[in-house]
From TrEMBL:
InterPro entries with a match to the protein in the record: Caspase-like_dom_sf, EF_Hand_1_Ca_BS, Glyco_hydro/deAcase_b/a-brl, NODB_dom, Pept_C14_caspase, TPR-like_helical_dom_sf, TPR_rpt
Pfam families according to UniProt: Peptidase_C14, Polysacc_deac_1, TPR_16
Signal peptide residue numbers: 1-17
Keywords associated with the record: Carbohydrate metabolism, Hydrolase, Metal-binding, Signal, TPR repeat
TPR repeats (start-end): 783-816, 817-850, 851-884
Upper taxonomic lineage: Bacteria, Pseudomonadati, Pseudomonadota, Betaproteobacteria, Burkholderiales
Organism: Janthinobacterium aestuarii
Protein name: Polysaccharide deacetylase family protein
Domain annotation NodB homology: ranges: 264-454
Domain of life: Bacteria
Residue spans crossing the bilayer: none
Keyword RNA-binding belongs to the record: no
Length: 897
């Protein structure tokens, strides 16, 4: 049996007719928007200050979190430990967000239902119609609204008017229907209990599984985690990576997890209370079974502290006092149930000590135990506990009673987990009706199976915890002593047709060499237009390079953008020429530079590796075949390399224009050097890889067929560019590519990467280039590369792909502030401001002095409508970067908030 979204009340009846009871929601079908006025009724102006639309939005958010929790924790037992912990942590945070939302909604509903509000029936009708018959709701979804319906019921009960009485009946029936839904899910579980002897067998819950399957179409666990600032790091480094050094365990951090308890020994713990109703129900059940337990109370449920720090206890404190009197241990669960791993200083201490003061005021017998909300703690929190002589108690068995709306399912989970662990501390919460319902069955079974229950007696087992960061790996180097370049670009030919792109191409290559690959500017000889005469070009090679200090461990990069020409020799061979600015077409055989001359220059250079890139057209080069293919990488350092990449395309004088005033060939070359040429992802771009990227890409979008190969005299060495790690923190100042550039890049990258590509060789034949395999890299390097790819994708406005890369970087290296900021900015760019803010918060946590991240954080909060937090972030930004160019604009933004 499968359950489908319930669209109309009639379907509800049909869907559940197979169950024991028939129930129906009280309203007929209507495509209800929560809070929308009932169709046909006059739109009376409500007198209430309550914004019904806002309440309706909160209903939807409540459901959203309810569903996300279910998706987060579906099959959570099959998750690796790290992912499971994060899923639980985020799930609990969403749950507590919902608890606060429900508290606020309670207050709003209280106002909304006040007899002084003439619009109250209409408003409630809208909300109820949403719960009863919204076409987007599945039947299990409605369990999210149980507490609200109970509040509504209590509210309308105060009103004795006839419409109020009718409404009371309607809400009662709705609650009955929710009970019916719950019982239907329970029934599936009870069948499981019927076979308790075979608990290890995987039992199907078709109705529930179907519901979860529907939700998984709407949400994914990974996405929910990410939107809440969590990327789960890889449990094991990916294949091919170098293992990081093992972190050193910290011996002084001791906590109790329950793993050290004797066999078949269980400790029951109940968090988040005391609750006005359920805490006492739970203690009554425990008493019945004669079982001890520890209750971890939240301070604000017990009272408050006055200005002098004195405890002012409330009714909750009485519940707590009673627990202690009955012999239960009552410990501290923080004051406001805050995520204490994110707190520091007085705020953190206040969370711990405030509740300690309240508990001591209730009874000096309070247990000196502390449980971190969500289990989230930092070293400062642990130190604060030590100072306060409190011991941290964690758990190893999670009932997930806060996440799971079905009591029998909770019971089943606890029993299965206890079976598996054999001992331990079980986490429950004494603020849910379903926990009360689940507990007796748990105790029945555990007692029947001979389990013992331990109370707090001061005995505990210490578990080492570790969190030392891994040391940074030494980066792989290419081993060049110095880097040289000759960069030539000619547009303004006197006697040849003028070109449009060559000078700009040369300029772009020069900038890339200097800015990206750290070539010293004085070693990049640049000849533009009139400077690029035959004499000057030859002098650049002979004087500036050969006699200018090039050493044998150096590399030389040569780039020429201009005319090329081909002449048929008497032998029948084609000989290529590069055409200097002062050449005459009528006599280029004497005033142009033949490729054989370039070949001679290449042979005469002392440098280890030389790479000639010629953005010019020739139909033949007139070169003799060079040495064979390259093998990598250790040997490469010893081998002389003389390589050439030419744009090809013999008969074309001018190639099609690329973006930003570049030729298609040079644009593609620049994209390759920007990182796309790193085909095997090892952080190095070899000439071979660059050719394997550039040649097929260029020929796929133009009529050119680039050629590549080793020049005579080469020993097969391969020129190497080492990609530097990008350091740019994405911000509104980051420039993205033009539409034209993005369009061309998407064409260039249309072909999927292949292990080998076929490229023309320098003799006009074809050759297969096999890209070299990756050398081992540390996870830090892999993380950096993922970040860099993300950056490139961001600039191409490929946001989903960029998000995936930044996520990958964070999986590899969870403390990578750069990737965290960049992930945040991708969210920001997609107008997901809350999610963005979480990642900018993460960034400043990792790198608290990173000014730009505060600016981003401020922008995200401003867009999310949180003026106070935006101001605080902007303020920190201005403190860190008071003279930044953006500072005046930020001050203006602050004033407008
Ligand atoms: Zn809690």
């Amino acid at each position: 049996m499968t359950s489908k979204p319930i669209k109309i009340a009639a379907t509800v009846v049909v869907a559940l007719a197979a169950g024991a009871g028939i129930y129906t929601f009280t309203r007929p079908a209507a495509t209800a928007t929560p809070g929308a006025p009932a169709s046909g009724s006059p739109a009376a102006a409500p007198q209430s200050t309550v914004d019904t639309a806002a309440v309706a939005a909160q209903f939807r958010d409540l459901l959203g979190n309810f569903r996300k929790i279910i998706v987060l924790l579906a099959d959570e037992q099959s998750l690796p430990e790290g992912a499971r912990d994060e899923a639980r942590k985020v799930g609990q945070a969403l749950f507590h967000e919902n608890q606060e939302r429900i508290a606020k909604l309670d207050a709003a509903l209280d106002q909304l239902t006040a007899p002084t509000n003439p619009g109250r029936f209409e408003a409630l009708d809208g909300l109820l119609r949403y719960i009863e018959s919204d076409p987007g709701l599945y039947d299990a979804d409605r369990l999210a609204f149980r507490e609200l319906l109970q509040s509504m019921l209590a509210d309308v009960a105060k009103d004795s008017s006839l419409p109020a009485i009718k409404l009371h009946k309607r809400i009662s029936e709705d609650l009955d229907a929710l009970g019916e839904i719950e019982r239907n899910y329970e029934k599936e579980i009870r069948q499981i209990f019927g076979n308790l002897g075979q608990r290890a067998i995987e039992l199907k819950r078709e109705r529930w599984d179907d519901y979860v399957a529907q939700l998984k179409k709407l949400y994914s666990r990974e996405q929910i985690l990410k939107e809440n600032g969590i990327v789960v790091p890889y449990a094991v480094p990916p294949a091919g990576s170098v293992p990081e050094a093992k972190p050193v365990p910290k011996k002084d951090e001791a906590e109790i997890f329950g793993l050290g308890l004797p066999k078949k020994t269980i400790v029951l713990t109940f968090d988040d209370g005391p609750h006005r109703r359920y805490t006492e129900e739970i203690s009554a059940i425990l008493k019945q079974y004669g079982v001890p337990a520890v209750f971890f109370n939240v301070g604000r449920n017990l009272g408050s502290l006055d200005a002098e720090g004195h405890a002012k206890l409330n009714a909750g404190a009485e519940v707590s006092r009673k627990l202690m009197k009955e012999g239960y241990a009552v410990g501290n669960h923080s004051f406001s149930h805050a995520q204490l791993s994110k707190q520091t200083g007085d705020k953190l201490k206040g969370e711990i000590l405030g509740t300690d003061t309240l508990l001591k005021a209730i009874s000096p017998e309070r247990a000196a135990l502390f449980r971190f909300p969500y289990g989230a703690r930092n070293s400062e929190g642990m130190a604060a506990l030590a100072d306060a002589h409190l011991k941290s108690v964690m758990w190893n068995i999670d009932s997930l009673d806060w996440a799971d709306p079905v009591p029998s399912s909770i019971t089943n989970r606890v029993l299965a987990s206890v079976d598996k662990a054999g001992r331990g501390i079980v986490l429950f919460h004494d603020i849910h009706e379903r926990t009360v319902k689940a507990l007796p069955a748990v105790l029945d079974k555990l007692i029947a199976e001979g389990y013992q229950f331990a109370g707090w007696d001061g005995t505990s087992f210490q578990v080492a915890k570790s969190s030392a960061p891994a040391p940074e790996k030494v980066p792989v180097t290419t081993g060049y002593a110095n880097s040289w370049a000759v960069v030539i670009g000619i547009d303004d030919y006197a006697k040849w047709p003028k070109l449009q792109y060559a000078v700009r191409d040369a300029q772009g290559i020069r900038e890339t060499l200097i800015e990206k690959f750290a070539f010293a500017p004085e070693r990049v000889v640049t000849l533009k237009n009139g400077e690029a005469t035959r004499n000057n070009i030859l002098a650049a090679f002979h004087d500036k390079l050969a006699h200018g200090g090039v050493q044998k461990n150096d590399r030389i990069f040569v780039f020429f953008a201009g005319h090329g020409a081909t002449r048929k020799l008497s032998s029948g061979r084609d000989l290529g020429y590069i055409v200097p600015v002062d050449s005459d077409p009528a006599q280029f055989a004497t005033d142009a530079i033949p490729m054989t001359e370039i070949q001679n220059i290449a042979e005469s250079l002392t440098a280890k590796h030389a790479f000639f890139v010629m953005d010019a057209c020739y139909s033949g080069l007139g070169l003799t075949r060079g040495a064979g293919s390259s093998s990598f990488l250790r040997d490469n350092a010893k081998r002389i390399g003389r390589q050439m990449l030419t744009a090809g395309g013999g008969d074309q004088l001018v190639a099609d224009g690329g973006p930003n005033g570049h030729s298609v060939f040079t644009w593609t070359l620049l994209q390759g050097l920007a990182g796309k040429g790193d085909l095997n992802g090892d952080g190095l771009i070899t000439a071979t890889e660059l050719a394997a990227y550039v040649a097929p890409a260029v020929s796929s979008v133009s009529n050119q067929t680039p050629a590549f190969g080793s020049l005579p005299g080469s020993e097969g060495g391969d020129f190497v560019f080492e990609l530097p790690g990008e350091t740019e923190f994405l911000s509104p100042n980051t420039t993205q590519l033009s539409t034209e550039a993005i369009a061309l890049n998407s064409k260039l990258d249309a072909k999927p990467a292949a292990a080998s590509v076929t490229v023309k060789d320098l003799q006009g034949g074809e050759q297969k280039i096999v890209t070299p395999g990756a050398v081992p890299s540390s996870t830090r390097q892999l993380a950096q590369r993922a970040n860099d790819r993300g950056l490139q994708l961001y600039k191409e406005k490929q946001y989903a792909a960029a998000e995936a890369q930044f996520t990958e970087a964070l999986k590899l290296r969870p403390d990578f502030a750069l990737a965290a900021n960049n992930l945040g900015f991708v969210f920001y760019k997609q107008e997901k401001y809350r999610e963005a803010a979480r990642w900018f918060e993460n960034t400043v946590k990792m790198d608290p002095s990173r000014a730009i991240a505060y600016l981003n954080l401020g922008d995200a909060y401003a867009k999310a409508g949180d003026a106070a937090k935006a101001k605080a972030a902007y303020k920190t930004y201005l403190e860190l970067a008071p003279t930044a160019a953006t500072a005046p604009a930020v001050r203006q933004k602050m004033e407008k908030l």
